[in-house]
Amino acid sequence: EIRLLILEPGAHEDALKCQLVNAELSWRTRFEALSYAWGDDTTKYQLECSGHHIGVRANLHDALLDLRHPTRKRVLWIDALCINQADNDEKSKQIRLMHEIYSQAQEVLIYLGK
Q1: What InterPro entries does UniProt report for this protein, alphabetically (predicted)?
Q2: Which residues touch 2 (CB under 8 Å, ≥6 apart)?
Q3: Alpha-carbon radius of gyration of the chain
Q4: CA-CA distance, 107 to 50, in Å (whole number)?
């Protein structure tokens, strides 16, 4: 089982909103995987996700703003958000699935930053 992030549509200047949903890789759900440089961890932005506020690094915040579609949702797998980084057991299991996750992604997006 993995988590996928549903990025809500909006204009570039709108606050980012998303939902995290569980999915099985066997379901062949269509999603895009994002690979990006995590960057400096001192700058945090707030992301509203499934009714909670999550701190994200500046580079991920910029990537989400640039990737957000103005009129339709976008389904993404992003390691920093789809893996519980505070749970070492989950992180270990999910890291072992990363090859399969990237292989099953409809597209793999690479974000190098601004």
Answers
A1: HET, HetReg/Transcr_Mod
A2: 22, 23, 24, 25, 77, 82, 94, 97, 101
A3: 13
A4: 24
Residue 6: pLDDT band (50, 70, 90) is very high
The token pair at 20 is 């995290």
Q: Write the burial class of residue 18 (CB in 10 Å: 0-12 exposed, 13-18 middle, 19+ buried).
A: buried
pLDDT, one tens digit per residue, over 13-43 is 899 999 999 999 988 899 999 999 877 777 6
Q: What is the span of the domain harbouring residue 66?
A: 2-111
Q: How far apart are CA 39 and CA 62, in angstroms?
A: 11
pTM, 2 dp: 0.91
Q: How many domains does the chain have?
A: 1
For 32, the token pair is 């895009």
